[in-house]
Every structure is written in C-alpha cells, then in structure tokens.
Write a structure and sequence with these properties.
With 331 residues, the protein is α+β, with helices and mostly antiparallel strands. Helix content is 25%, strand content 25%. The chain contains eight helices and 21 strands.
Length: 331
C-alpha cells in the first residue's frame, strides 16, 4: 500500500495499491494503451477528498512552459498539466503577462484549471484559455480541443460531465496580454478596498496580484498548516423569485446577478449566518475566518469530513430551501 496523505491537501489518511508518477505525454499514452483498468487521476490534490482507497493512482507531474506564439500585445503560452498553478501566476506576473492575476493563490495544478473552470474575483480561466491538449484514455490518442468545445460554465466543464474519465489533460494553452492590460478587473469583492488600503489608484497587474494574495492569505487557511480543500461548496444560483422571498426574512442577504431570471448567492454567507463559521465537530470544522472552507483539525478521515459537509447541506436546506452543491471531488 502507498500512502496518499501527502498528496491531498485535506491531509486525510488514504492509500492506494499502486502510485505511478507521470512526467511526460509519451508515458501517459503508454499507460493508457497498456491499462484499461479503472484508475484515479491525481494532480495537486487540492480539490479531492479521499473517502475510499483506490487501487491505482496516476499522479500527473508533466511540467513545462513554452511560448508558442507571440505578438506585440499578447502571447500564447503552453503549460504542462503538472505545473503548480500559483507558481505559474507568479511567473507570469514577473514576465508582465496579464490575464490571470486575479487567480493568484488558488491551490492545485494547471491541468485541473479547465476541469473546474477555476475562478476568483470576477475572472475565470475560460477568459484566457485558448485550448486544451488531452490523451484519450481508451486509445492513447492525443487530441486538442478549443476552449469553445469544453462546455465551460460556473465551476463546470465537460470533463466533469459527459467527458468524465474519458480524457486526461496533459497541457493547456492560454492567451495572455503583454502590454496595456486593458482588461484589468479591480472592482470585484474586496479587491478595490484592498487597493485603497495599499494607496493604489491606477492598479497594474502586479498590484492586483498583490491585493489578491493579501486577501486570500488573510481569510483562507494554508493547507501546509491545516488540512483543507479550499472552497468546499459552490455558490448557489437560484431563481430571482426565490431570492426575493428570502429577502423578506433575510434583507441583508447579498447576491450577484447572473441573468434576467437568476442570481448567485454567496455560499459562505449562508453557512456563516447558519452558525457554522468556526464550529468544530470531532476532528472537522469550518474555518474561523471563512465559513466556506471545511478544515481537518488533525486526524480526520474522508468519511468524517464528508459527513460534516452533509450536516451543513441539511442545515442550509432547512433554513433557506437552497441545495448546496459540493465543489470538492469525492473519491
């Protein structure tokens, strides 16, 4: 048995019979051709909760950064699926490449970005993503999909739906700005207040990056210090009619418009007001600074974390009639 405890940010005890580290596309293709058995694909382990022990795990560690096309105002950058996401964001800021500065300090590997359509502070990876290179599990063939073919939505893609277990991402291509950076987004969430505190009036991409790191560091726990998987639940999208009814009882309930008929409600606000923020049951609890994050205080297994999350879901349904959906992938 091989321990997976250090490969999941929750830090729960888990193991597998065989762990294979994949460092190249060729190796990945060979593995797909040689094995048709069910395997678990693991990247940074930041969005994964192990409840059961899988037989075989392929740990994707394909590295590399390559500028494949360049103009005066933009570049196309190919990144290996095994590159650390935050390290990539930092690298791009150092090169003065813009577009992903709002996505700083999101844990995980680059290959997981499109699967989850990672997003924060008004930006999602789909805003800069150009294409994704994959290996088909049943044939070992390498394919490339344009961003428009991926079915990207809020924390969703075809990789989580009809393509689940069909393809393995080996690299992604993003279009990043080189000059001007006219698409800087500084008015979402706490960014503007933080920029004001920093005495920044005309923010650069480096300023946005610095502000986001400050915000996330102040309210989100470091997995190296306390086990967690980041945001455990998605922000629910509900009909405007339901939201207006809830406002009668909860007039301070915030929302963000999605379209003419739906709004997004912050899951963290719902969980906080339901009394879960800072609460602990056994070895598991809700982080004291951000109710959306479930933490492992030490010694918890995956089942304990999952059961705690179900209690939160039941509480939110009872109070608000809202069904919270997990953002975390349960294995």
């Amino acid at each position: 048995m091989v321990s997976l405890q250090s490969l999941n940010t929750f830090g729960v005890k888990a193991s597998c019979d065989e762990l294979i580290t994949v460092t190249s596309v060729a190796q990945l293709q060979e593995l797909c051709l040689a094995s048709q058995e069910s395997t678990i694909i693991l990247g940074g382990g930041s969005n994964t909760l192990f409840v059961n022990s899988p037989s075989t795990v392929w740990y994707i560690d394909i590295k590399g950064k390559e500028v494949i096309k360049e103009r005066e105002d933009a570049i196309l950058l190919r990144i290996g699926a095994g590159e650390d996401w935050h390290e990539l964001v930092t690298y791009c800021i150092e090169q003065n490449w813009g577009g992903i500065e709002n996505l700083a300090l999101i844990p995980g590997k680059c290959g997981a970005g499109p699967i989850q359509n990672i997003g924060a502070y008004g930006v999602e990876i789909q805003h800069v993503l150009q294409s994704v290179s994959v290996v088909e599990r049943s044939t070992g063939n390498r394919l490339e999909f344009h961003v428009t073919e991926l079915g990207l939505g809020y924390r969703h893609s075809f990789f989580k739906g009809e393509w689940k277990d069909k393809y393995i991402i080996d690299s992604i291509v993003m279009r990043l700005t080189k000059d001007g950076h006219h698409e800087i987004k500084s008015h979402y969430g706490a960014i503007q207040n933080t920029l004001t505190e920093m005495d920044v009036k005309s923010p650069t991409i480096h300023d946005i990056y610095t502000a986001v790191v400050k915000i996330r560091s102040s309210k989100l726990p470091d997995p190296k210090e306390i086990g967690n998987g980041g945001s455990f639940f998605k922000n629910p999208i509900i009909p405007i009619g339901q939201y207006q009814k809830l406002l009668v009882k909860y007039p301070e309930m915030p929302s963000y418009p999605i379209d003419d008929v739906t709004v997004k409600v912050p899951a963290g606000w719902l969980i906080d007001r339901a009394g879960w923020k800072g609460k602990q049951v056994g070895n598991v609890g809700s982080y004291a600074k951000q109710a959306l994050v479930i933490v492992n205080h030490g010694g918890a297994d995956g089942t304990e974390v999952l059961n705690y999350s179900k209690q939160i879901q039941e509480s939110i349904m009872d109070l608000y009639g809202i069904n919270l959906q997990r953002e975390i992938n349960v294995i």
